Automatic annotation (TrEMBL):
It is found in: Nucleus. GO terms for molecular function: mRNA binding; snRNA binding. InterPro entries: Nucleotide-bd_a/b_plait_sf, RBD_domain_sf, RRM_dom, U1_U11-U12_snRNP_70-35kDa. SMART domains: RRM (SM00360). It holds the Pfam family RRM_1. Its main location: nucleus. Transmembrane segments: none annotated. It comes from Rhodnius neglectus. The lineage of its organism: Eukaryota, Metazoa, Ecdysozoa, Arthropoda, Hexapoda. Keywords: Nucleus, Ribonucleoprotein, RNA-binding. This is U11/U12 small nuclear ribonucleoprotein 35 kDa protein. One of its GO terms (biological process) is mRNA splicing, via spliceosome. It comes from the Eukaryota.
Length: 203
C-alpha cells in the first residue's frame, strides 16, 4: 500500500483507498477510454518542473518568478491561458535549473499566499506519472466534493489505508478482549444472532 499513486490508474484514482473494481461515475469511464499522450512540444525537464494551481486571475509570470526564485534559479515560467479569451486558467508551470530546487519548491511552496490566493504546488504529473490522464478527460487528482468526482492518490487527497477485514477468529478474540467475556460465550452468542438474522431474512 502507498498513499501516493506511482502509476496513474483512473479506476484507482476514483477510489478513496484505491481498491474499487468498478467505476462509480462516468468521468472515470471517460478517463479509462481516453487515449491521452503527453504533449511532445512541452519544453524543459519534468524532474525540474513544478505545477502551481489555484492562482489568482491577475497573477503574472513576473510575480510568480519573484515568489519562487527563493528556491533556486528559474529557467522558465508559464501561466496557462485560455486560447480564446487570453485569460489565466489559474495554473502555471515553473521550471528550475535543478531538481533539488524543484523539490524544495514542492515542499515549502505549497499553500503560499500569492495575490490573496493560497496556491497548490505539486510536481509535474503529465510527463512524470505513467498513465496520466488530465482532469478535463475525467482523470487528474483532487476535485471538489460537490462535483461527486473526487480523485485520490495525489498530494492533497492521498489514498487512505484499506480497512482490514477481520476473520471470524480475530473478531472473537477482539470482542473477548473488549467485552471481558469468554471466547466460547461470544462464539455461542454470535451463532444465535446469525441464526436469528437468517430466520428474519427468510420471512
Amino acid at each position: 500500500w502507498c498513499p501516493r499513486a506511482i502509476i496513474y490508474d483512473p479506476l484507482k484514482a476514483g477510489s478513496i483507498d484505491g481498491t474499487d473494481s468498478q467505476p462509480h461515475d462516468r468521468a472515470i469511464m471517460r478517463a479509462q477510454n481516453a487515449d491521452y499522450k503527453p504533449n511532445k512540444n512541452v519544453k524543459g525537464d519534468p524532474e525540474c518542473t513544478i505545477f502551481v494551481a489555484r492562482l489568482h486571475p491577475k497573477t503574472t509570470v513576473r510575480h510568480l518568478k519573484e515568489v519562487f526564485s527563493r528556491f533556486g534559479d528559474i529557467v522558465r515560467c508559464r501561466v496557462v491561458e485560455d486560447l480564446v479569451t487570453g485569460r489565466s486558467r489559474g495554473y502555471a508551470f515553473v521550471e528550475f535549473t535543478s531538481s533539488t530546487s524543484a523539490l524544495m519548491a514542492y515542499k515549502r511552496g505549497n499553500k503560499t499566499i500569492i495575490d490573496g490566493s493560497e496556491v497548490f504546488v505539486d510536481m509535474e504529473c503529465e510527463r512524470l506519472l505513467p498513465g496520466w490522464v488530465p482532469r478535463r478527460l475525467g482523470g487528474g487528482f483532487n476535485g471538489k466534493k460537490e462535483s461527486g468526482q473526487l480523485r485520490f492518490g495525489g498530494r492533497e487527497r492521498p489514498f487512505r489505508k484499506p480497512i482490514k477485514l477481520l476473520s471470524k477468529k480475530e473478531l472473537i478474540i477482539s470482542l473477548s478482549d473488549k467485552l471481558y467475556k469468554p471466547k466460547d460465550q461470544i462464539l455461542k452468542e454470535s451463532s444465535v444472532i446469525a441464526a436469528r438474522f437468517s430466520e428474519i431474512s427468510k420471512r
